[in-house]
Design brief:
Blueprint: H1 9-28, E1 33-44, E2 50-56, E3 63-72, E4 76-82, E5 85-92, E6 98-102, E7 108-110, E8 115-122, E9 128-138
Antiparallel strand pairs: 1-9, 2-8, 3-6, 3-7, 3-9, 4-5, 4-8
Length: 139
């Protein structure tokens, strides 16, 4: 499994690393079809939650979220939500612009029809680029 060639090299490296870890997690949580949803916004304004990723769980499936990540050019936070309810938050800083949360065997589940989102927020100058992805398996 690999990431689309049109994605910048640094992002591809990060996502491919996550996909490789996802394979290990997939085995640990009992299999399923892997999913990885990526999103980016190149003009996120200051102090505004901005949706970066949106994924609706397909009919007849359960999404077992193994983790999510966020990267930005600014200090901020990334929030994983299911149907608008926050489930996990990661923070980035000037010293560490990327962060990933892995849930391992304690995956967060979303039922068929539920919307999984990742929002980004920063407190720096306007028009920052924020990127996020959420990954796991469908069962």
């Amino acid at each position: 499994m690999s990431v689309t060639p049109g994605v910048p090299q640094t992002v591809r490296d990060t996502l491919n690393n996550i996909l490789n870890r996802l394979t290990s997690i997939d085995v640990a949580v009992g299999g399923g079809t892997a999913f990885n949803q990526y999103g980016q916004d190149t003009s996120v304004v200051t102090t505004t939650d901005t949706q970066l990723v949106s994924y609706t769980v397909p009919a007849g499936q359960t999404a077992n979220i193994a983790g999510f990540s966020g990267t930005g050019g600014a200090t901020g936070r990334f929030t994983l939500k299911i149907d608008g309810t926050a489930k996990a938050v990661i923070r980035t800083s000037a010293a560490k612009r990327s962060e990933t949360a892995y849930f391992g065997g304690g995956v967060i589940s979303a039922a068929a029809g539920e919307e999984i989102t990742v929002t980004g927020y920063h407190e720096e100058t306007p028009n920052q680029t924020l990127e996020a992805n959420v990954f796991g398996t469908l069962a």
